[in-house]
Design the sequence.
């Protein structure tokens, strides 16, 4: 059994039943193995969530070429993060519920955002919280709207507009 197979099955279980279906026992049953064999590959439940987050959010940290300005880098980072939250809302909610899962790539995203914000504001932590909360709220709303496709594009556009206004306020307040 490969780690990628475990993570793919875990993502499916997260998506099923609004995130309530993921447990080590349910995952083992889905894969036809014993729960102990999973612990050897991913550790405990928090370790499983960290591994899922590392896989899902890895692209968020990819730096686009040619963006020298911090505001543009923040916009690109948050746009990618917002899309990942919208695509995998149950993972985001599971990480909220399991603070031990906040490590690896999710922590690296936060640290990168902190670093970029520290270059442009005296209040990087306050702005980080504002921007991340906005990405979470909008991303989860976007995920919920996928049942109503007519709302998807307007919500996506609204997030980008609001993010731009926030960043304009941030960079204009230096």
Sequence:
């Amino acid at each position: 059994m490969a780690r990628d197979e475990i993570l793919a099955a875990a993502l499916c279980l997260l998506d099923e039943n609004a995130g309530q279906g993921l447990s080590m026992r349910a995952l083992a049953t889905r894969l036809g193995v014993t729960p102990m064999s999973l612990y050897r590959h991913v550790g405990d439940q928090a370790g499983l969530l960290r591994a899922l987050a590392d896989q899902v959010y890895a692209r968020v940290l990819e730096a686009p070429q040619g963006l020298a300005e911090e505001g543009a880098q923040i916009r690109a980072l948050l746009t990618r993060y917002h899309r990942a939250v919208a695509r995998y809302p149950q993972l985001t909610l599971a990480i909220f519920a399991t603070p031990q899962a906040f490590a690896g790539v999710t922590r690296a995203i936060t640290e990168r955002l902190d670093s970029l914000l520290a270059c442009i504001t005296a209040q990087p932590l306050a702005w980080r919280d504002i921007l991340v909360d906005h990405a979470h709220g909008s991303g989860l709303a976007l995920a919920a709207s996928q049942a109503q496709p007519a709302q998807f594009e307007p919500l996506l556009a609204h997030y980008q507009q609001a993010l731009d206004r926030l960043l304009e306020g941030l960079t204009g307040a230096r």
